[in-house]
Write a structure and sequence with these properties.
Blueprint: E1 2-6, H1 11-22, E2 26-31, E3 49-52, H2 58-64, E4 70-73, H3 87-108, E5 112-118, E6 127-129, E7 133-135, H4 142-146, E8 162-163, H5 177-196, E9 199-205, E10 207-209, H6 222-231, E11 237-238, E12 245-246, E13 248-250, H7 251-264, E14 269-274, E15 280-281, H8 282-292, E16 299-300, H9 317-323, H10 331-340
Parallel strand pairs: 1-2, 1-4, 2-3, 4-5, 5-9, 9-14, 10-13, 11-16
Antiparallel strand pairs: 6-7, 6-8, 12-15
Length: about 350
């Protein structure tokens, strides 16, 4: 199959590219090589044709879509978006970029899209209250965070909530600029599918880690930040109390899921969580990396970012059941590999 991979020179994109090639597909990569991701607008060589252009450029989109049968759309500005001044770049890079790509796909008659979305679309997801059952945690309060009260309470009675796995039918609740842009991407893709009869697999990636993660940049994930600190001989600094729950999923598992969705999902619009299925705390990850690298123990700082969510963990059973995907990389093995890179 001839496919266009946007953002294919990035961290996840390179692994998706390798998986596509291993599965025998013909791949064309579109990447803008933006400076905040690729220092100086440069990248290591790829094993596929690379077109350096922006998804917001209609002429470039028309050119790269010639002969293409399916699109995997990973190009995006990532990160939290911690300041109001970030909003225009998220809206332009992610929302306008996706809209231009979809318009180009309509012109070219390309009707299959695999979209890299994110678990951030759920906000705090769902929690369980003994009195009120499944509830959506209220937005986090900065006064409570500053006082060290990190657990979001039940919005009805204030009782502490138990965490729960988040399924794809959980109402969307974006709580930062990046999350809002990802929700918009999904809605634009749904609009496009209804008009054109196209298919969309929206893959809501959870916390992706693995070889090739960017370090010491605004795009570095928490695993890369911890690893960089440890390799400098410094203790990793863990925000809040370190008990934030996440679903850390290895990048090769994410790549396999993405390519499987591209190959197998052909009808309608469907969202899929992509996670390991085993929740861990941020403190667990820091401790595992410190042990592997024989570095200093993590320091729990109590610092916080208002745009962060407290807990978000995936129920990825739909992806397993519908597309026959299962994660293959165990957490401890993945941490050891990350530490060695």
């Amino acid at each position: 199959m001839r496919v266009l991979l946007t953002g294919g020179a990035g961290f996840i994109g390179r692994h998706v590219l390798n998986e596509l090639l291993a599965c025998g597909h013909e791949v064309r990569v579109l990447d803008s090589l933006r400076d905040d991701v690729h220092a100086g607008g440069k990248t290591a060589p790829l094993k596929a044709e690379l077109i350096v252009a922006d998804v917001r450029d209609p002429a470039a989109i028309d050119k790269v879509l010639i002969g293409v049968e399916a699109v995997l759309h990973l190009a995006a500005k990532v990160g939290l978006g911690v300041d109001v001044s970030d909003l225009p770049d998220y809206a332009s890079s992610n929302d306008v970029g996706t809209a231009e790509l979809l318009a180009g796909m309509a012109r070219a008659g390309v009707k299959r899209l695999t979209l890299a979305s994110s678990m951030v679309v759920y906000g705090e997801g769902v929690g369980h209250c003994p009195q009120h059952g499944a509830v959506r945690p209220a937005p986090r309060n900065e006064r409570e965070l500053a006082a060290g009260n990190f657990e979001p309470p039940c919005p009805h009675c204030g009782h502490p909530l138990e965490t729960a796995l988040v399924g794809e039918d959980t109402p969307l609740d974006p709580r930062n600029a990046y999350a809002s842009s990802k929700v918009a991407q999904e809605f634009y893709a749904s609009n496009w599918a209804r008009v054109t009869g196209g298919s969309v697999a929206a893959l809501r990636y959870h916390n992706v880690y693995g070889p090739g993660m960017p370090r010491d940049t605004p795009y570095a994930g928490v695993a890369a930040i911890f690893t960089s600190a440890l390799k400098r001989g410094e203790a990793p600094k863990v925000f809040e109390d370190g008990r934030q729950r996440r679903d850390f999923v290895h990048v090769r598992d994410v790549a396999a899921a993405t390519v499987r969705a591209c190959e197998a999902h052909r009808d309608g619009v469907r969202a899929f969580n992509v996670g390991s299925g085993t929740p861990r705390t941020v403190g667990d990850m820091a401790a595992a990396l410190a042990q592997t690298l024989q570095g200093p123990k993590p320091i729990v700082t109590g610092q916080y970012r208002l745009g962060d969510v407290r807990h978000i963990t995936a129920d990825s059973s739909r992806l397993c059941a519908d597309l026959g995907w299962t994660p293959a990389v165990a957490f401890n093995d993945g941490m050891a590999e990350l530490a060695r890179q």
